[in-house]
Each structure stands twice: as C-alpha cells, then as structure tokens.
Amino acid sequence: MSHTDAPTPVPAGPPAKVTGDERLLHRSLARRLMGRPELGSVVGAAAVFVFFSIVAEPFLRASSLSTVLYASSTIGIMAVPVALLMIGGEFDLSAGVMVVSSALISSMFSYQMTANTWVGVGVSLLVTLAIGAFNGLLLTRTKLPSFIITLGTFFMLTGLNLGFTKLIDGTVSTKSIADMEGFDSAREVFASHLTLGSVDIQITILWWIVLVALATWILLRTRVGNWIFAVGGNADAARAVGVPVTKTKIGLYMGVAFAAWVSGQHLLFSYDAIQSGDGVGNEFLYIIAAAVGGCLMTGGFGSAIGAAVGAFIFGMASKGIVYAQWNPDWYKFFLGAMLLLATLLNAWVRKRAEEKA
Amino acid sequence: MARVRRRGRVVGAVLAAVLGVSLAGCSSTGGLRAEQERAGRAAGGKAAVNTPRWTFAMVTHSGDGDTFWDIVQNGAQQAAVKDNIKFVYGHDKEAQRQSELVQSYIDQKVDGLIVSLAKPSAMKDVIAKAEKAGIPVITVNSGAEASKAFGALSHIGQDETVAGEAVGEELNKRGRKKALCVLHEQGNVGHEQRCDGAEKTFKGDLQKLYVEGTNMPDVQSSIESKLQSDSSIDAVVTLGAPFAPTAVKAKEQAGSKAEIDTFDLNAQVATGLKDGSLGFAVDQQPYLQGYEAVDLLWLYKYNSDVLGGGKPVLTGPQVITKKDAAALQEYTKRGTR
Questions:
Q1: Which CATH class is domain A38-355?
Q2: What residues in chain A have their Cβ under 8 A from chain B's Cβ atoms?
Q3: Tens digit of pLDDT for each residue in A185-208?
Q4: Are B249 and B315 in contact (CB under 8 A)?
Q5: What is the pLDDT of residues B202-235, one digit of tens each?
C-alpha cells in the first residue's frame, strides 16, 4: 500500500483545529485510508472470502486457493489497463475479443510462415498494439464516445477472428503449433506453473502482480499518472494546462492492447489450439472488476490495486459457487448483485471520506 | 396527500382484478398441475443399490439455459438417484473457464468426472491432472477423437459426421434435390461436421446458411430471405430443435414448398412431426448421454467395468419420423427426450 494520496480533487473543508500533533497525525492517516479508491473493495473481498470459507468446505484448501488465484489472474491481467483507461475517462468494449485476436494472429502467423513461434509472438504484439492505437486514434480524431468506437471495433474483431481463421485454416479453430520451434520456451514465459509442495502457482499470477505494481507506480509516482487522472477528470482543463490529452488516451488504449497480448499468448501456449469464437462478453468482466475496485464510470478516480481486488472478488465468487456446490444457474445473478453492492459500498465510503475531509 | 391515497386505491383495484382473473380462469388442460401429475407417475426416486454415496461432477461447454444440456442433466440426475450418487453440475462456454471448473472439482476430490470435450486442446492438461489424482473420467457428447488419447475410460455421444451422413441419406430417400443447412452458431466445429456429413451423402446440392442463433427473429428473417431468393430449395435442415419451428414460420412467410427437417428433438419438434409440418428429426438422445455417463462411472467404481472397448459408445443418430412422434410427445414434455 502506497503512502501517497491519490491525486483526487478533494473539496477544501474548514481547516482542522490544531489540538495536538498526535491526534492530527492519526486523523490524517484514517482520512488517507478512507480516501483510497480500493478501500470499499478490500472490505468487500474480505467479506466474500469469509463467506465462502464458511459455506464451502474445500474453499480454504491450498490447491483450491491456487485455482481461485488463477481464475482471478486471467481477469486481473486485463482489469489493470482497463482500470487505467476508466480512470482516463474511457471504455474499451473490444478488450475481450482482442485477447483472442492476439492469440489467433500469433498462432496462424507461426504456422503459415513455418516460423519460430517467437516470431509469431512478436508479430502478434505489433498487430495488437496497432489495434489499440487504432481505437485511440479513432477516438481522439472523431470525438465520438469511446462506447461507440470500441463497440465498432468489437464487432469488427469478432468477425475478423472467425473470417480469417476459416479462410486460412479452413476450420473454426487454429492448427496445433505445439511441435514447432520456440513453443516450449514461449510456454515457459506465458503458460508455465511453479509447483510449491503440492500447489501449482500459475505464471499468470506473477504477470498479474507485475502489471499491478507497474500500473500503480505509473499512477502514483510519475507525470504520466497525473496526466491520466487529469484527462479523466476534465479533458479540456487538462489540455489547457498543457497535458498531452491525445497522446495519453492513445497510450491508454495501447496499454489495454498490451495486456490483451499477454492474455492471448497465455491462451495460446496453455491450450495450443485457439477457438475463434471465444472471448465475447469478457470485456464486461474486466469493467466489472475495475468498477468493483473503485474506478468511477465518469473517470478521474480509481486505482490499479482496486482493480486487482475486484478481479480477486470475481475469482472467489465464480469458483466459490462451485466449491459450495450450488446450482450454477444463479451465478450471474450473484455476479450482478455483487457488482451493485460493491459499487454502493464504494460510493458510501467515498462520501464519508469527503465529508471528513 | 389525496393523490397518494388515490394512487393506493388504483393499485389495490388492479391487484384485485389480476388475482380475480387468475383464480377464475383455470385451465383444464396442461400447465403445472398436469406436469405434477406426470411427475407423480414417474419414478419414485429411491436408490436401487447400497454402494457408498460417491460424488460425480459433470462439466460441459453449455451456455446458460440450454435445453439440450438440460435433458442431459435430467438423465444424469435420474441415474444418480438410482445409483446412490451425489451429482453436481457446472458449465461454461468459454474453454478456459470450463477447464478451471474441472480443476475446482478435482480440488474437491470428487469420485468421478464427466466432461464434454468441445475444445479438446483446452481440456487436455486438466484431464491429465484428474487421472493423476486418481479420478476416473468419462467424456460425453463431443471429443470422441480426443477422449482415448487423454486417457478417459469411455466416450459417450454421437459422431456428428455420421449423423450428418444419415441426414443426407434420408434426404435422398425423400427425393430432395436442393437442401439448405442452417448453422446457428458460427465457429462450432460439430455444426460444420454435421453439414459436411450431409453434403457427403446427399446426391443433390447442399448450401450452408449462417444465422445468429441467439436472436430468433434474425434466424427467421435470414431463412425467409434465402427461401425467397431461391425457390428451388426443397429441404431446410436446422441443426437444433428450437430452430425447426422458426424455419417452418419462415417457410410459410416465404411461400416456399420446402420440407423442414432438423437435428435433435424437443416437444415442439415432436408435435411438428406428428402434424406433418416437419419431415424428420435426427436425435442423438441427450438423456442417454447423461444417464449412461453416470451409470458407467458407477459400474467402473463398483465393478471396474468399462464399456466400448476403447471405441466411442454412440447414442445416435436415430432418425425419427411421423410414426414415432406420438410416443415421443409424451417423453419430450417430461424433459427426457
């Protein structure tokens, strides 16, 4: 947990009475905690964790927790840049299918060119980043809402995924590249797991932690972080004081593309063949994770750690329902209810924080 | 204040009216009461064996609210009652999450696993983990070619290519010349195999039509416009039971003479076969897939029996026509066919 205040515009209240250093320090620490975007989600995560520990007997086993963490990481890797983008005041509805696009490009390029799989991985990175840049450019050039722009990209990518796969491979899933050079080393990087005792720790969990740390550092310790908060808070005001709004937004979309590339390569190297129709609908899971983690829909407020906690809540709930052996028909209902509750909690905590400030 | 009271009176009057209509307007046919009577006549639901209470988990690639998988579940549940099994079920259409579900049942140390392999490569590792944990695995519905390689005991399902070939032959028998194969899910390998199989044996010309299966009006208008643009089409084959009645509607709207045939079965299809609006249906008996999967796992746990001799156990295709429809109507209503 960082000890710097998130640069959020806090309305100036009456100056606090100075009655003694100790009390002042104590109150400012409490206020600092109350002002953190992820506080509500941390409380929510603790509640969900305790709840499933009680109702689902296998939930607390080490092997179960590693499954939960893995499920969380597959959402969490994407939730980090999506959270940054939401702080910057925009959405990306193409994030879900972009993951599959990235995997397809990598697999098909390697196969068709009979190239080392790392070449496919590199080409995929460039193409995916280009898709992200395309989203950002279109947004800043046309001034259309990001909802519309990325909805268009979402449909186009869904069609391209299927169309190209059928055109090139003749079926709806890609051909196996497991016997090609470089596959094993790429699998080490994107889809291996470490075994600690009897527990598997998937490498995606490490990627997730690294991305959260990186995003948190960018947000709280760099100029770019200030730009992100500024463009999300008020783009015109930010531009007036010299923030490069266009560059920042394009960069944010490319960040989403980068994470989509990581997730896509993970899919490819853990499953070897990719189904062209997958990925649809996942973009909302990323948005849910970020929103539960305290990112505001209106931009200008949120955190990467919050998005990570949001993804963890999602992972716990989705797998906890299985461990509790409940009927999965109700799963989506719980997901929606949880989203509402978490967001209400966030709003309440924020309001309290602002009153105190 | 007065307005509030008036609004309360209006709401009360509406509620009273609704209640009155629903009590007075009883139906003497169908509805819940008929269903409960049928259920009462069905099996008593007691275990027929005294083996320990094992837990079997089934994980499929079904989406939410899928009628086909509902019947598979019914079969599995009835076998579970008979064999004194605790049956749990999970599903996800996304390959990665389906494999996570299997993993979470392995974590729970279930006594047996039933998995559908629509996306074999995604399930390979997790099934290997199940074997390592000593949990027997039976694959159902899809993935016959991968099942043995992954080390599953048996595979229960229908070979989609074989089923497609049966459709092609049936169309020949009926003297059809030009058929339309309606695929309601782009990117589904099994669907492609069905149409390709039909194309292989069908002597006439077969065209594919892709429609958006999650959007019925779109399915109808797509079939309609295809039939309008080509009046020589004399057979339409849908790949799922819910789409057959929609194709019948489209045919009527387009004023076409085409015969509507379908893969799979439901109550509407049974009725359609009976009244002649549908030609034939090719069923893969989903109830059997669920029932046999649980039963075969039980047999393996109890007696180390394995069925199939390393070859898939086929539950279809079964060609159903007008003469079978009457009996099947009853069974589709109770959700077992």
A1: mainly alpha
A2: 58, 61, 63-64, 67, 70-71, 74, 162, 165, 171-173, 176, 267, 270-273, 275-279, 282, 318-319, 322-323, 325, 327-329, 332
A3: 999 999 998 888 778 889 999 999
A4: no
A5: 999 999 998 888 788 888 888 998 898 889 999 9
